Amino acid sequence: MADTADGAWVALFSGGKDSSWALYRALERGLPVERLVTVHPEEDSYMYHVPATDLAELAAESVGVPLVDVRPGDMGAADAAESGAQGDAELEPLEAAVAELDDELPGGVAGVTAGAVESEYQTSRIEGMCERLGAELFAPLWQRDPEALAEAMLDAGFEITVVRVAAYGLDESWLGRTIDRDALADLRSLNEEYGVHVLGEGGEFETLVTDGPHMDRPIELDYEREWNGSRGTLRVTDARLG
Question: Partner of 110 for a Cys bridge, out of 2, 69, 120, 223, CB 3.0 to 4.6 A?
Fold first, then answer.
C-alpha cells in the first residue's frame, strides 16, 4: 500500500480532452505524476476511450511523463455476457498494470487521476480499484457542469481535435474540427436540438488534445476522414511533435 504523502501518482491517460484535463489539473496542484497509463482496447469499450490511443505516446513525450501501455487483447469482451461483466473484465489488466507500478515506484502509487465526467459505470470501477490498491482518486471533472468544463479547457489553452463522431447531428465536417468557441456554440445548439452532450459523454464524439499548457510541443497531424453514413473516424496517416 502506498504512502499517500510520499508516493507517486499515476494518470489514466488516453490523450483525449477529459483525461488530459485531469492530468493538467493534477500537475497544476503539484501532484507528483510519475507515470501515464494508456489502455489500448481493440474494439468498442465500455470503459475506455478507443480511437487514436496510439498517439498518447506522442502526447506523453510532449508532457514529459513516461507512458505505460496496456494492450490486453479483447479484455474479455467476447466472454462477457453483459456490459457489467465486460467492464469488470476490462478493468483487470489496468488494475494489474497499476499494481505493478505500486511495486516499482518509490513509495508506491499514492493516487490515480481519471477523466470521468458522468459515467457511474466507469467511475465506480476505478474507485474500487483505488480502494483495493490503497490509492487516492483525483477526478476533477466528476459531476461538473459540462459547459463550464469545456469553457475552462479553452480558457486554459487546450487545443482539442475531434477524432471520432457517433451521434445524430454530428456529421463528417466534425472530423478533424478543433473545438474552439464557435464549435462549442454549435455543440450547445446540437445539445438543444438533438441532445448531443457538450463533452461527447458516452462516446458521442472523441477527441485528441494536440496542444496545451502542460505540453512542451504541439502534436501535428496528417489524416484522412473515414465516414460510413452515420458515424466516422479520423484515420491519422502521420503524427509528429512540432
Answer: 2
